[in-house]
Description:
Distance between the termini: 9 Å
Shape: globular
Structural class: alpha/beta
CATH topology: TIM Barrel
CATH superfamily: Divalent-metal-dependent TIM barrel enzymes
Oligomer: single chain
Largest sheet: 8 strands, parallel
Number of domains: 1
Strand order of the largest sheet: 5-4-3-2-1-8-7-6
Number of strands: 8
Helix content: 40-55%
Number of helices: 10
Radius of gyration: 18 Å
Amino acid sequence: MPKWPLCLNTCTIQPASLMDKIGIAVETGYTAIEVWSNELTQFEQTGRPLSDLGQILEDSGLKVLSVIAVFDWMQSGDFHKKKTYTEARRRLRQAAVIGAPYIIASPVPDRQTLDITLAATRYRELLEMGEEVGVRPVMEFLGFNGNVYQLEQAVAIVRQAEHPNGCIVLDPFHLYRGGSGFGGVKLLSSDEIALCHFNDAPALPPQFEQTDEDRVYPGDGILPLTSLLKDLISLGYEGYLSLELFNPHYWTEDLRQVARIGREKMEATIRSATG
């Protein structure tokens, strides 16, 4: 049976400083973190090079799983002439300096008409950019507002891009919120899944009214997380589960306790799937 390594997405304990987030992740038993690109930029703005942060992380024993995120890359026209191309390259280099193998490629934040062919072309270009620095862009779907809001759309983009580094991030909240459901997960191959964000969703507000802020600890909501993990076992997925919560109520609590409770609840869900 797999023992998925556990990761802490820094948004889960948002009010803490980056240094405190690193310390909390170590103290509460995580082996990796996901960081946000604005956190890296803020570190650089202190006058210190990102290589210093990479050394801090290495000394802490934490792996950096991914950087979040690359935005606005799914555009028409000559991508290479757009500011978003330059920004994507900058963020890829940031990820490389701190040793992150992945960077999240987030879709357009509205329900505009999706051109799968264009999206696949742009995604392939991102993947080729990532190859230059050793970082893999990971296709994300956003259940609440993206033009890529369902699993099948993200998978179609990855497969049509026809690049060996193409992959997706799974997220139970987005599977639920976007109406994908969970049945499509078992149709994936394990090498198409870079990582799995982990969280739960409450019964209320209604499904299609929920936002990121409604996410709750794994096991505190209504999502079939045990079944999801069993499907991942069947696929042979043994990558990270990363606690990703944006709940402002948790941000008012003791952040070490938030991280610790989240880890314990992830472990309880794993036991229910593997016991």
